[in-house]
What does this fold into?
Amino acid sequence: MRTLEGYFWIFRMSEKFQAVVIGGGPGGYVCAIRLAQLGLKTACIESRGSLGGTCLNIGCIPSKSLLNLSEEFQKVKGLANKGIEIGEVKLNLDKMMKSKDKAVTVLTKGVEFLLKKNKVTYFKGHGSFKSKNEILIKDDQKKETIIQTEKTVIATGSVPVSLPGIEIDEKIIVSSTGALKLEKVPNKMVVVGGGYIGLEMGSVWSRLGAKVEVVEFLDHITPGMDKEISSEFMKILKKQGMKFNMQNKVETIQKNNSDAVVSTIDKDGNKNNFECDVVLISVGRKPNTEGLNLKNAGVSLDEKNRIKTDKKFKTNVENIYAIGDVIVGPMLAHKAEDEGIAVAENIAGQSGHVNYDTIPGVVYTSPEVASIGKTEEQLKELNKSYKVGKFSFMANSRAKAIDDAEGFVKILADAQTDKVLGAHIIGPHAGELIAEIGVAMEFGASAEDIARTCHAHPTFSEAVKEAALSVDKRAIHS
It folds into this structure.
């Protein structure tokens, strides 16, 4: 028999919201803030215990911290060649990791403050559907709370994929999560997969002293990237000491007490064994939809277990939406953010929209690699007539002055209209330089528009201007 107190508890805990966001990553927390800004009573549910999702906790931010710190470590070792003489340079990995962790803590606390500032109710716990209008939240103490919702946005992100029969222990066989927390620099690391994440983490440990070998099933790294940029990227990484074993399929990974052997078969049928201390499995990510009890709400998935949505991010259930890594499209934090804002505005009766043709992608190695819009290969597949403009950083005065001149800028423009169709940069600050081209493309600019815009001298951005000039074969400095 239930007591009156029991009934009161159920009533008190079944709070009603106009909108609930399941997931507090870049897409989720941004969506929740925008919903609240638009006047909706909003809740955000996050199971991790801290906001920011994979990106802030075990992805973008900690990896960029280590990329920067490892790059600084390498630069300091080379300062004597530039007239700055210092004592012996030593690595204190424990302090480096604490610096990385501090950056994560500060930023996650900052997101929590933003939710509070915007009056978003924050629930710590795992959210799942009890019905299409009820969300069950279970915290780490197994306490259950049920809340009512008019609209729900699923923003639960993605998780790493492993290979069949290979168990990730985050010690010897690691995902990107484990690669961010290694307690010592491995003598040798094998990276399985030549994508963005594997190359970023591989370059971190390479700079800190590990011998890094990449095993890739395809004949090129960074699938989907413009092939000319991809080829140049691999050449530069080879110069930095990373080794590449292309067209090798991993068959087994045999783990011992303190090391492992990665066994592969190459395109010619030859078997190869790669001994190492750490294996980084970096073969992609998959939508994180397990445990949401989507069947209770009637939400449909596609053949890749992604949530099906229409152009307004609505699922087959009228009041349920989905954004970010759980739906079709590149698994990028900024893509999820833009979708979070767009879906919030759609829910509020506005016209939210994401232009998927102008979403940049960046690899934060040294040098950085950045892309936006179409690649040459895509334009050829579309039988699109185009012009190419290229400019090397070797001819950029700022890059030469600081001895950071590897790479080039490549701009693709429509052969008839000169409209910018895509751009690809490998070189210093590529991730920042690509933003100018993103703005230009968003407003339908031509290569000549970029070329006729005055760029400060001496800056890296002049390479973008010169590449735009090169589209019509009138670059000045090359």
Remarks:
- The chain is about 35% helix and 25% strand.
- The chain has three domains: 4-160+287-354, 173-275, 358-470.
- The first strand starts at residue 16 and ends at 22.
